[in-house]
Amino acid sequence: MELELTDRKILNILQSDFPIAKHPFLEIANITGIKEDEAIDRILRMKSGKIIRQISAIFDSHNIGYKSTLAAFKVADKSADSAAEIINSHSGVSHNYLRNHKYNIWFTITLPSEYSLEQEIKKLSEKSGAEDYLILPTLKLYKIGVNFDMTGADDASSFRFFSHEDFKKDSEIKISEFEKACIRELQKDIEITHEPFKNMSDVLGISQEKLLETVKNFISERKMRRFACVLYHQKAGFSYNLMGIWKTNNEEADKNGKIMSSVKEVSHCYLRPVYPGRWEYNIFTMIHAKSKEEAWNIMDKISSLTGLMDFGALESTKEFKKVRVKYYV
Q: Per UniProt, which keywords does this protein have (predicted)?
């Protein structure tokens, strides 16, 4: 699908500055110098063309009472597909990939705080026949937030990434029944209409003004990272992604994590635990690029900036599952 400059400008706004307003597409139209109906038509066309995956609230799982982790299973190659099917059947698994490593199945699992991630992962390992597995929770989040600059003009430079400083203490996390009901609605893909929040507010039995006020409160309280669109990154021109893995000593982990997160092509940067003799890499970076060569150039840039020479990359060779986490359903 061919994207015009106006389409690209709209995509930047949808990713980083979606208007929390009764008529958000009118505001987007005003910013881009077109009519509201044209803005709606362009967005609908980009949805049908598989450029836009979804437009909805992006919540922070920790700050709304959930917990999550990355896990890696070592499964016989011939059993990978059947093992992935078992893993995918778990409602808490949102992303699951085959990667080029002896730990070949990598997935994320998110659960309400009263559940045990360790027990659920152990059950999945037994059901799937995993020979070994790693549980790799976030020890420190340096950066998270996928935001593709679609114009190449740094239109998205005001985008604010989430980091560890945004996490609430467990004792501070309180979600009311009203907030849970709002979360259930706001995590849904919005309708591309003149008043996209109307049906949501009707379901909740509140005014649009009350719902929009709640969205703004969620954002200010860091319960919601942002309200935004998620793109099919391959169709949007960023066809290659790479999970960088880096070995750094504990004393320099924060310094190196902050350097890595300053690289704009890095969308995720985490400090994770090591398992001596089994897994020695403690910083993970997700890189989105337009080609394999570009991705590896970014890896080399990070190596040069940090001075780290012990690193590698995990490439996705198959996508088993990629869905949004559904909270309080």
A: Lyase
Whether 71 and 93 share a structural domain: yes
- Distances in Å between the Cα of 23 and the Cα atoms of 28, 29, 118, 208, 307 are 9, 10, 44, 10, 49
- CA-nearest of 49, 40, 31, 231 to 150 is 231
**Beta-carbon contacts of residue 271 (< 8 Å; ≥ 6 apart):** 138, 139, 140, 141, 142, 253, 254, 257, 282, 283
Quickly tell me which residue has 């690289």 as its tokens: 263
Report the b/e string of 164-201 with b at 16+ CB within 10 A. beebbeeeeeebeeebebbbbbbbbebebeeebbeebb
Residue 245: inside a domain: yes
Residue at 145: amino acid letter = G
Confidence of residue 49 (pLDDT cuts 50, 70, 90): very high
Residue 220 burial class via C-beta count within 10 angstroms: exposed 0-12, middle 13-18, buried 19 and up: exposed
pTM over 0.85: yes
Domain boundary residue among 234, 257, 278? 234
Residue 156, pLDDT > 50, answer no
Let me know: does 40 contact 193? Beta carbons within 8 Å.
Answer: yes
Question: How many domains, in total, are found in the chain?
Answer: 2
Neighbouring residues of 2: CB distance < 8 A, sequence distance ≥ 6? none
| Mode of pairing for the β-strands spanning 140-144 and 266-271 | antiparallel
> Which residues are identified as catalytic?
95
